[in-house]
Amino acid sequence: MTFRQCASAYIESHKAGWRNKKHGAQWLATLEAYVHPIFGDLSVQAIDTGLVIKAIEPIWATKPETAVRVRGRIESILD
User: Fold this and answer.
1) What span, in angstroms and rounded, lies between the C-alpha atoms of 69 and 1?
2) Contact yes or no for 9/75 (Cβ under 8 A)
3) How many angstroms separate the CA atoms of 53 and 69, rounded?
4) 3-78: CATH superfamily
5) Contact between residue 24 and residue 15 where contact means Cβ atoms under 8 Å apart
6) Neighbours of 11 (CB within 10 A)
7) Distance between CA 74 and CA 31 in Å, rounded?
């Protein structure tokens, strides 16, 4: 299973418990913008710390809150 497929399944299974549709849209938007271009098409087993850093490092200094959220979303999906 690719990370993109896993993320899609995670969002689908959790969206009913989220407060509103905007929350789910934010998850998808941040993954599409920052994560999927780096490792969205890789197998979940291939994801390592280096790839996660590669995805969030470009936004860490300019958008630290977004970077923290993206890191947390990656972690939740991989768990």
Assistant:
1) 23
2) no
3) 13
4) Tyrosine recombinase, N-terminal domain (1.10.150.130)
5) yes
6) 18
7) 8
- Structure tokens that stand for 55 in this block: 């995805």
Distance from C-alpha of 34 to C-alpha of 71, rounded to nearest angstrom: 10
Q: What is the pLDDT of residues 30-67, one digit of tens each?
A: 999 999 999 999 999 999 999 999 999 999 999 999 99
Residue with tokens 């958008």, as numbered in its chain: 63
Alpha-carbon distances, residue 57 vs 8, 31, 61, 76 (angstroms)? 23, 14, 8, 19
The tokens of 2 are what? Answer: 């690719």
Q: Quote the tokens at residue 15.
A: 């969206």
